[in-house]
Amino acid sequence: MRLSDYISDLLFRYECVIVPDFGGFITNTKPAIISPYTKTFYPPHKLITYNCHLRNNDGLLANYISTVDRMPYDSALNYIRFEVNQWKEELKKTDLTLERLGRFSLDINNAIIFEPQTDINYLTEAYGLASFVSPEIKREEYVKQVEKLEEKAPILISDRKKSSPDYLKYAAAFLIAASVIGFASNSLYKSYKNKQQVGEAQKQQKELETKIEQATFIVTDALPSVTLNVTLEKKPYHVIAGAFRYPENAKRMVNILLEKGYDARILGINQWGLTQVSFNSYTSKRDAINSLNKIRRTENEEAWLLVQEL
After folding, report:
1. What CA–CA distance (Å, rounded) separates 170 from 174?
2. How would you classify the pairing of strands 112-116 and 102-106?
3. What's the predicted TM-score (pTM) here?
4. pLDDT score for 21
5. Can you tell me the distance from the alpha carbon of 38 to that of 92, in angstroms, rounded to the nearest whole number?
6. Distance in angstroms (rounded) separating the CA atoms of residues 160 and 54
7. What pLDDT shows up at residue 133?
8. Long-range pairs, 252-259, Cβ under 8 A, ≥24
9. Distance CA 69, CA 181 (A)
10. So what's the architecture of 237-307 in CATH?
11. Which of 82, 194, 210, 230 has the fewest beta carbons closer than 10 A?
């Protein structure tokens, strides 16, 4: 992990994280707001600020790195010093961008300017909440439109009841009775058809069960066996890039070699307690020697060959 990743993890739980000899990152909680211009809702969040005067080591960052990577406390402090020196050197040449934190730059007076990264919300209570645009609800305009329609088209209510002829009443009663009789007949017919279908299905089910009971399945041919031949390729020849007292320096060297295209890895700790890093490992001694000669000419004159089965 990068040093900025450790700092970002701590900012989710603490309001201040101090990087020794560099400065402190402080979080301030801001409430939820609604922009009156864009109609956008912003959830509550933590805003990151930077204070260059907080340089004394309070032990929080080093203890966290020591716990996560299972390394001694002094090794964690050396790792922080190394990263901070790299930050300062880069800041002298160009802007410094720390992932998940923000960007640093220098003004004409060599004062540090910090621009926080705003796409990460460090407030755990607002986890999962995102900003969204809510269109304005125009209820009053709709009410006014309804009132205008009511004014233009008033409803007239008359107290007089129209009398209907008697023959219409008799016709309505006849239609209701006919519909009731038709509905009852239709229900009886459907019930009869359902009973017939159920009986036929039960008969077919019994015939199928009888056929299954009488059937006999015999398997005469055995299935062919499958044999897998697996061989592990051994690579006992290793071109060594260096041996490091601190494991974090060995990890850093592996990352550098991987970026250059080598199949680099950590081979373990030797008898002197040093962590060994290889450029690559080979199955053939000739390939390993050829690679060693090329690396000595182009990369590292002090590279050497280790013969060991891991």
Report:
1. 6
2. antiparallel
3. 0.43
4. 92
5. 39
6. 91
7. 78
8. 252/82, 253/277
9. 85
10. 2-Layer Sandwich (3.30)
11. 230
The reported pLDDT for the residue numbered 182 is 59
Residue type, 218: I
127-137 pLDDT per residue, tens: 667 767 777 66
Q: Cα separation of 189 and 102, whole Å?
A: 78
Location of structure tokens 């864009």: 38
- 58 phi/psi in degrees, rounded to 5: -100, 0
Q: Identify the sign of the CA torsion 8, 14, 15, 18.
A: negative
- Can you give the three-state secondary structure of the chain, one letter per residue? CCHHHHHHHHHCCCCEEEECCCEEEEEEEECCEECCCCCEEECCEEEEEEECCCCCCCCHHHHHHHHHHCCCHHHHHHHHHHHHHHHHHHHHHCCEEECCCEEEEECCCCCEEEEECCCCCCCHHHCCCCCEECCCCCHHHHHHHHHHHHHHCCCCCCCCCCCCCHHHHHHHHHHHHHHHHHHHHHHHHHHHHHHHHHHHHHHHHHHHHHHHHHCCCCCCCCCCCCCCCCCCCCCCEEEEEEEECCHHHHHHHHHHHHHCCCCCEEEEECCCCCEEEEEEEECCHHHHHHHHHHHHHHCCCCCEEEECCC
Report d(CA 185, CA 176) in Å as an integer.
Answer: 14
The count of other CB atoms within 10 Å of the CB of residue 101 is 23
Answer left, alpha or beta for residue 70, where phi above 0 means left and psi between -120 and 50 means alpha.
left
For residue 269, give both structure tokens: 């700790």
Torsion sign across C-alpha atoms 271, 277, 283, 285: negative
State both tokens at 202. 């039960």
Per-domain residue ranges of the chain:
3-133, 237-307
Residue type, 90: E
pLDDT of amino acid 226 = 56
Please give the structure tokens belonging to residue 262: 């080598």
102, 114 Cβ separation under 8 angstroms = yes
Region of 23 (left: φ > 0; alpha: ψ -120 to 50; beta: rest) is: left
